[in-house]
Amino acid sequence: GDKPVQSDDDKLVSTMIKACLEDEKKYNMRNDKLNLSGLLNVLDGVIDCPGRIVIMTTNHPEKLDPALVRPGRVNKKLLLSYMGCTQIQQMIEYYSIAKLDESQIRRLYDAFECSAQAFTPAEIEELCAEHEDVDAVLGGFERLAVKN
């Protein structure tokens, strides 16, 4: 299939983000500030492009510099926490483009209720990507649910 074209701005943003997120021991404070400053300048240029959406993710929002996440740079924050059973069902239905029937819903709820594990959207998305039909996804979910 066709690969999406990556603009020079996109490549520069990716490079700057990777540089900023490198192990902080590799850089002294002066370089970190320069990297953050450069990233902010690039982001401001990218954000000014009409129709462009920038998505940033982190597992540690408390560690981000306030200048990076100020209003205007970050307009929407979403917490993607652990999923409930209804959310898992909706995600499976979305990815498989099929409604679960009653027996499939029961399989999902039984596996969910028996599991001591919490499930992230990334785990469910991975299951959906690995399996071609709903029953295969549910089988994968059942195996994941009893794993712990």
From TrEMBL:
MF (Gene Ontology): ATP binding; ATP hydrolysis activity
Keywords from the UniProt entry: ATP-binding, Nucleotide-binding
Domain (ATPase AAA-type core) ranges: 31-81
PROSITE patterns noted in UniProt: AAA
Pfam families xref list: AAA
Record-linked SUPFAM superfamilies: P-loop containing nucleoside triphosphate hydrolases
Recorded family membership: Belongs to the AAA ATPase family.
Name of this chain's protein: ATPase AAA-type core domain-containing protein
